[in-house]
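In response to reviewer comment 3 from the previous cycle, which asked for concrete evidence that the modeling workflow produces usable outputs, we include below a single protein chain processed end to end. The sequence was submitted unchanged, and the resulting structure tokens are shown without manual editing.
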Amino acid sequence: MASTSPTPSERTARLCAEAALFMRDHVLSRVSHDLRSPLNAIHSWAYVLERKIDSADAAAQRALAGIRTGVEQQVHLLETLVDTTRAETRKLQIERAPFALDALIDETVDEARRALADTRGVSVGVQGTPTGATLDAARERIGQALWLMLTFATEASAAGAAVSLDVSTTATAAQFDVNWQASREALTDAALPHLLESFARAQACEQQEAGRCAWVLALCQRVAEAHGGRFEARPLVEGEAASLTLSVPISGT
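The workflow returned the following structure tokens.
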């Protein structure tokens, strides 16, 4: 039987699922990293206490044994639950191939409009095309990252607002800037239609630690890193200009 192309709704569902998958991976990565540091400290201090406490003090020795056992149990949980769950997505595999950048931009913008922007009354425009550029990269992954950037900007825009995708290319890199006026209220308003998870949208409103992006944008960051590029997100400030930037090398070499 001949395969059929996915419908727009199936395509949107797949894009949302990919965003959720890498958001899960991002959160688990932070859990693994942020829990191991204090566990290592507890383990080290237990050895310090061991040298200070009388070996004949049975109660103190039982307390130290309990501390070590607790640390070992937590490390085991991280290894068997967190690390195993992340095994599939810990390293993003990409398949590079040359493709026409302008065609991908047209497809991705159409998907973003159809999936949410039109329903929310948000216009999505493109600046800097046609580029005539050919990108040697993972076409599907670049498209997913751009779609998520446009969708997030739409989620964080009031009705009647405009989202702009600005495309620029040089001999060595392609850069994509999504610009809009931030509306944190629109991002979290349960009465509005949404595509992204509610808890992730709420977390995106919080102040992010230096060098870390909002959970919901994890896929964009991973795609950038896998291509040797970069991803940046300006903090969301109500009523002020917001931007997301994805930059990737033109060539895979």
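Helices lie at 8-52, 58-86, 101-120, 139-155, 184-188, 198-204, 218-226. We consider this sufficient to address the reviewer's concern, and the full set will be provided in the supplementary archive.
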